[in-house]
Amino acid sequence: MAEQQNPAGAPVGPAGGAASPPKVLPWLVMYTVGRFAIAAALVLLLWWVGLGSFPGLLFGLLLSMPVSYVLLRPSRERLTEALAARSVARRAAREDLRDRLSGGTAE
Q: Which positions of the chain have pLDDT values less than 70?
């Protein structure tokens, strides 16, 4: 489904005004907490199976990168979409402000 846009190129909300970009902070917090939780779980698992403290920490952190990449894909994609929508909204607002400051007529 294509998203509606006004003549300035900004997304249009349900009421016909400018659409507000999705919230970034909840997705950022969810992704960050997920990364820490996966790293902690892998470190604890490696310590439990008998790998020493420092090597267990290093290998746990190293293994957490690909595991997080696979397991946190939906959160990462939603965070990326929210950041992209925020960027589009900011760009449209900046263009609108420039147009109004230059004396152009915005309809």
A: 1-21, 104-107
How is residue 38 written in tokens? 């996966």
- DSSP secondary structure string for all residues of 25-94: HHHHHHHHHHHHHHHHHHHHHHHHTT--HHHHHHHHHHHHHHHHHHHTHHHHHHHHHHHHHHHHHHHHHH
CA dist list (Å): 8 to 14, 93, 95, 96, 103: 17, 10, 8, 8, 16
Tokens of 9: 């190129």
**49 token code pair:** 């199976």
**Residues 107, 7: contact at Cβ < 8 Å?**
yes
Q: What are 63's two structure tokens?
A: 């293994």
- Phi and psi at 3, nearest 5°, equal -85, 140
Model pTM score: 0.67
CA distance 8 to 16: 13
